[in-house]
Design brief:
The chain is mainly α. Among the domains are: 148 residues, Serine Threonine Protein Phosphatase 5, Tetratricopeptide repeat (Alpha Horseshoe), CATH 1.25.40; 102 residues, Tetratricopeptide repeat domain (Serine Threonine Protein Phosphatase 5, Tetratricopeptide repeat), CATH 1.25.40; 115 residues, Tetratricopeptide repeat domain (Serine Threonine Protein Phosphatase 5, Tetratricopeptide repeat, Alpha Horseshoe), CATH 1.25.40.10; 55 residues, no CATH class. It is built from 39 helices and no strands. Helix 25 packs parallel to helix 27. The N and C termini lie far apart (109 Å).
């Protein structure tokens, strides 16, 4: 009621202001008007559903209407009133319900300046653009909404239909995103079909261009268009003829040179011509990044690696602002194993230049560095992998349809043991990557292995193999064989992987482990040496070298390597356990207890550490303490055969026949062919029978 009375008084004073009113009177009236309108809209929620009717009672609506009319008559704007953003937001909803769309747009616009990410404001501004029948403005606000909620299916759908109505080919991208999310409907698929028909009705386009050429064959660009359509129809010979006609008419037609290079590149006997065409295209700044890199490939194929390197460098010098080009070159360096150059290319990216692929390459570089600095504990690995995760996440902020970014995120999640998140990311990657790309199938196989599903892993790797064998496919097959216990078969697959790529870190690491498992420590030692040459910071390789040396009885070098492992990873409980074993073998048992105690503090259920400490206590003739530790080892790992053998032996020697008998039976339950256990069990049974008699 007070607000209504104040409003009436304010409106009356505004109406009575003459054109000769002094500035002080005008300022007072404007201040009162601001207080008045803020009071009237105070009850409205800023989260009001956009387009709501009757957000105020009839009295308040009438007063707001009169105030807005007076503002128009007196040329008073919201900026002059000095209204705050929250009140402007509320006034926008009121003005919209009153169909005062100019005021609504002005009010929402003022509020937007303070809260550009507010979804309610963006929806309201889009609604006003729809009411004003302004598709360009609507597109602006709709795309602003999509930056806030990029995967909202209704926004994607609206955006697709809007772009289709504007004749923008980008409409297909929104429908593909819906498809990638698994949320596309029959109507969406129908829209996609129409878009593709509109963009790719090549037979009709071909007929039209041929009619034009029949009428006037002197237009070079028509010949290029004809060649391009024929290329899309896979009529490669005819396309080459048409592009030749184009270049006869116009030697400076860069796109024609680019198409000629693409057409000739697959023919090994025409590499020289293809290179000439690519060189012309690049010189004429045609064909984009693809042609620049095609020229590089053709130089490599022509046995001119130094010229290829120069071509890449020149391309970067000529296009320093091209983030995609820089990313592709960095990716090549990464694949070649030149991590320093790849990192340098990323570091030298000019300020303000950003591209999805730059973040993807950064993520891959972090993954490669993680592979070359792992210690196998998970703790250190998680720190290394978190950087990769962040890079792929940044890539997806720029492009939610980047299949390679989703794939990188899936791998990061898998290596971080986040299997559910990995599956979700991998599902997106599968939908977005081309069917000819085996990467998603390979990653799916690795994830299935980590989930313990060997059958699914085999199915996925068979699917990847359709597109041709490579080092990673052989590596995964080796992992599957090793998981099944087929060590010789696994070894053959790892050998095959290393024949494809001698720098495959994980394949060599796994081969090293298999070699030790089949009692080939000398070969395992050789592999660990190669690994440390490839990746001097690979802690896991140093650990493998120590273990191979231990198998060979080379205790001092093994001890030194284990100390280096622990310098880099003091939390490495397995290395602590192995170090204790070295000390004992070097006749320094007094140095073994501290690392074992630390290993058990870090991981109280680490059975090898309990067993090793039990051996230490046996060496010190502390049988009771040893027995306790052997029992702890069995509690941690019921299949720990050596611990069970020691438990049985201790009971047997102490003539605790009942406990010894039970312990020997436990050994036989694990290894039915253990002759020692069988013989000692018989001794127990004979002694027990003798005691009864």
């Amino acid at each position: 009621m007070d607000g209504a009375i104040l409003s009436h008084a304010t409106i009356t004073r505004l109406e009575n202001l003459g054109e000769f009113a002094n500035q002080e009177e005008i300022d007072i009236a404007i201040g009162d008007s601001l207080h008045c309108i803020e009071t009237l809209v105070a009850t409205v929620s800023s989260d009001t559903v956009v387009g709501s009717e009757s957000v105020l009672n009839s009295t308040s609506e009438s007063l707001v209407t009169r105030l807005l009319e007076l503002f128009v008559n007196k040329n008073v704007t919201l900026d002059q009133l000095g209204m705050n953003s929250l009140s402007a937001h509320k006034l926008g909803h009121v003005a919209m319900s009153l169909r005062q769309y100019e005021w609504a747009e002005s009010a929402f616009g003022l509020a937007y300046q303070a809260s550009p990410g507010n979804s309610n404001l963006l929806e309201a501004l889009e609604k006003i653009a729809i009411i004003k029948s302004d598709p360009v403005l609507r597109r602006h606000w709709l795309e602003a909404r999509m930056t806030v909620t990029p995967d909202d299916p209704e926004l994607l759908r609206s955006h697709a239909h809007l772009l289709a109505s504007l004749g923008d080919e980008e409409a297909e991208r929104d429908v593909r995103r819906l498809e990638a999310l698994g949320l596309d409907t029959a109507a969406d698929r129908s829209l996609l079909s129409g878009l593709r028909a509109r963009a790719g009705a090549r037979s009709e386009a071909l007929e039209a261009i041929e009619n034009a050429l029949a009428e006037d064959p002197s237009v070079a660009n028509d010949w290029y268009s004809h060649a391009k359509l024929l290329y899309q129809e896979e009529e490669l010979g005819k396309a080459l003829t048409s592009v030749d006609r184009c270049l006869e008419l116009d030697r400076q037609h860069g796109e024609a040179w680019a198409l000629m290079a693409i057409l000739l590149a697959p023919n090994k006997n025409r590499l020289k011509e293809a290179l000439k065409a690519a060189t012309h295209a690049v010189a004429l700044d045609s064909g984009g990044v693809d042609l620049m890199m095609l020229k590089v490939d053709l130089l490599f194929a022509s046995d001119s690696p130094s010229d290829a390197e120069k071509a890449m460098q020149k391309a970067l010098e000529n296009h320093p602002q091209d983030g995609e080009l820089r990313a592709i070159i960095a990716s090549r360096k990464l694949l070649e194993g030149d991590f320093i150059e790849a990192q340098k290319l990323l570091d030298e990216t000019p300020v303000g230049i950003d591209h999805t692929l730059l973040h993807v390459v950064e993520g891959r570089l972090h993954l490669a560095n993680a592979d070359r600095a792992r210690d196998g504990t998970g703790q250190t690995d998680a720190v290394l992998l978190s950087n990769a995760f962040a890079a792929f996440d940044e890539a997806l902020k720029l492009d939610r349809e980047s299949g390679v970014a989703w794939l990188g995120l899936a791998r990061s999640n898998r290596l971080l043991q986040k299997f559910k998140e990995a599956e979700e990311s991998l599902d997106r990657a599968r939908r977005l990557l081309p069917e000819s790309d085996p990467s998603a199938s390979i990653e799916s196989a690795l994830l299935s292995l980590d989930n313990g599903d060997i059958s699914a892993a085999s199915t996925f790797i068979d699917a990847a193999d359709i597109h041709g064998e490579n080092a990673t496919i052989s590596y995964v097959r080796g992992n599957i064989a090793a998981r099944c216990g087929h060590l010789e078969q696994a070894l053959n697959h790892y050998i095959e992987a290393l024949e494809y790529d001698a720098g495959h870190i994980r394949a060599r690491l796994n081969r090293c482990s298999v070699l030790m498992a089949i009692n080939e420590p000398k070969k395992a030692l050789d592999d660990s040496e190669i690994l440390l040459d490839l990746a001097p910071n690979l802690t896991l390789a140093r650990l493998r070298r120590a273990e191979a040396a231990m198998m060979l009885g080379e205790w001092e070098p093994a001890r030194d390597d284990l100390k280096m492992v622990l310098e880099n990873a003091p939390h490495h409980h397995h290395a602590l356990t192995q170090l204790a074993s070295c000390h004992m073998s070097l006749k320094r048992p007094e140095r073994a207890e501290a690392p074992l105690n630390e290993a058990l503090r870090l991981v109280p259920d680490h059975a090898p550490a309990w067993h090793q400490r039990g051996l230490l206590y046996l060496d010190w003739s502390r049988e009771e303490a040893a027995l306790s530790d052997f029992e702890a080892a069995v509690r941690s790992d019921p299949q720990h055969l050596d611990a069970r053998l020691h438990i049985a032996a201790l009971h047997h020697e102490a003539q605790r026949l009942d406990q010894a008998s039970a312990a020997w039976k436990s050994v036989l339950a694990i290894d039915a062919d253990c002759q020692v256990a069988r013989t000692r069990l018989e001794e127990c049974e004979i002694a027990q029978l003798a005691a009864i008699k």
